[in-house]
Amino acid sequence: MNWLWAIVVGLILGVIARAILPGKQAIPLWLTCVYGILGGMLGNAVAGWIGVRHTEGFDWIRHLLQLAGPC
């Protein structure tokens, strides 16, 4: 179930990043979404590797890693 959330969060972050960045992007919207999804999954995997995947409350560290994944 965590991978499903990583995909959803990555998709949302990809669309938000595209809306925030000024100017015309050189890649299509679908590729931006794919990069966001891959970044979310990568951040989720890194969170598991460093042992912060499951924490009490809101997983701020995991979500920050998901955000940093595509960078």
From TrEMBL:
Keywords carried by this UniProt record: Cell membrane, Membrane, Transmembrane, Transmembrane helix
Compartments in which it is found: Cell membrane
InterPro entries documented for this protein: Transgly_assoc
Superkingdom classification of source: Bacteria
Any one GO CC term of the record: plasma membrane
Membrane topology: Multi-pass membrane protein
Transmembrane segments: 29-52
Assigned protein family: Belongs to the UPF0410 family.
UniProt protein name: Signal peptidase
Lineage of producing organism: Bacteria, Bacillati, Actinomycetota, Actinomycetes, Kitasatosporales
